[in-house]
Amino acid sequence: MSHKTALVTGASEGIGLEFCKLLAARGYHLILVSRRQALLQEIAQQLEERHPGIRCTVIAADLAQPQAAETLFNKVKAQQLQVDFLINNAGLLQNGFFVKLSLAKQEAMMQVNVVALTCLTHLFANDMASRKSGHILNLASTAAWMPIPNENVYAATKAFVLSFTQALADEMAALNSGVTISALCPGYTATKMMDNPDQGATLKISSDMMMAPAVVAEIGLSGCLAGKVTIIPGLSNKFVTLLSHLLPKMTFAKILGAFYRKNLV
Ligand SMILES: NC(=O)c1ccc[n+]([C@@H]2O[C@H](COP(=O)([O-])OP(=O)(O)OC[C@H]3O[C@@H](n4cnc5c(N)ncnc54)[C@H](OP(=O)(O)O)[C@@H]3O)[C@@H](O)[C@H]2O)c1
């Protein structure tokens, strides 16, 4: 059983919480990161009880704050923890007409989805490369593959994550760094993100169109540990990303725009 350490951002619920359960079952020590410290502490206690031998450390952080990644990295170092597996999972979503959505919330989304993810990757990838071993898994989305009207900034942040991760995977291999880096591209997944009043609007779609977060996390984790760079869970999500290559971008954008405007409430 492995006793390496994994740091998961957005560990308090959704796909992030499922990553933590799976990693704990594989014997990883965990560093759980999100804003809700008390909830993370409860989760840490439950995981330690369920998986004797693993150690969970809670670090509360608001990744929408500038410098949050550096502060988090310094806290990990101050506790003399070594991160063998980084999962940049925390993410925010805003739905609606760009000009009508709060600019502050869009900025927070870019900070969490793009800036914090990039900074954490830089800090921990360097550390891992110096030890010639490590894994990084970045949460992109099927939204990364296409422009999505009425969810346009979110889709653009995920396009950044996908492009950044794919290119960095090649760089890390060229450096013989021993560090693998992967992008996970889930489609609709049944978490709070699919029904969160703080996100401008909610996309009303049938639950049949959503995957379970535990399934998404398992596919992401095993794909990353197997060294896959781009991981797309589920056949229908693979089909959507294939369509994004076949259709002109603006044709796809028009179809998606009509779908989102009909189903956002
Ligand atoms: N659900 C989907 O359909 C779907 C599809 C494709 C991709 N994804 C991606 O998958 C990832 C996880 O999504 P999810 O559906 O599991 O989301 P979720 O259920 O809404 O959970 C989001 C997590 O991020 C944390 N978080 C939010 N803002 C934060 C901040 N400012 N600082 C630190 N942590 C923060 C939350 O914890 P606190 O509230 O405790 O801070 C929570 O643990 C995201 O990157 C998302 O974009 C999701």
Structural summary, described in words:
By secondary structure, this protein is an alpha/beta fold. The chain has a single domain, classed as 3-Layer(aba) Sandwich (Rossmann fold), CATH 3.40.50. The chain is 49% helix and 13% strand. It has helices at residues 14-25, 37-50, 68-78, 103-131, 152-174, 213-225, 235-246, 249-263, and strands at residues 5-9, 29-34, 56-60, 85-88, 134-139, 179-184, 230-231. Strands 3-2-1-4-5-6-7 form a 7-stranded parallel sheet, sandwiched between helices. Helix 6 (213-225) links the parallel strand 6 and strand 7 (230-231). The longest helix has 29 residues, at 103-131. It is globular. The structure holds NADP nicotinamide-adenine-dinucleotide phosphate. NADP nicotinamide-adenine-dinucleotide phosphate binds at residues 9-16, 34-36, 61-64, 89-92, 112, 139, 141, 186, 188-189, 191-194, 213.
Quick overview of this protein structure:
The protein is an alpha/beta fold and 265 residues long. The protein contains eight helices and seven strands, in the order βαβαβαβαβαβαβαα. It has a seven-stranded parallel sheet with strand order 3-2-1-4-5-6-7, sandwiched between helices.
